[in-house]
Amino acid sequence: MKLYMSVDMEGITGLPDYTFVNPQFHNYERARRIMTQEANHVIETAFNNGCDYFLVNDSHSKMNNLLVDELYEEAELITGGVKRYSMVESLDDSYQGAIFLGYHARAGQPGVMSHSMTFGVRNFYVNDTAVGELGLNAYVAGYYDVPVILVGGDDCASHEAEQLIPNVVTAPVKYSITRQAVKSLTPKKSGELLREKTIEAINLLNRIDPLTPPKQPTFRIEFNNYGQAEWAAIMPGTEIEPNSCIVKFEAKDILEAYRAMVVMTELAMNSTFN
Question: Is 159 a catalytic residue?
Answer without folding.
Answer: no
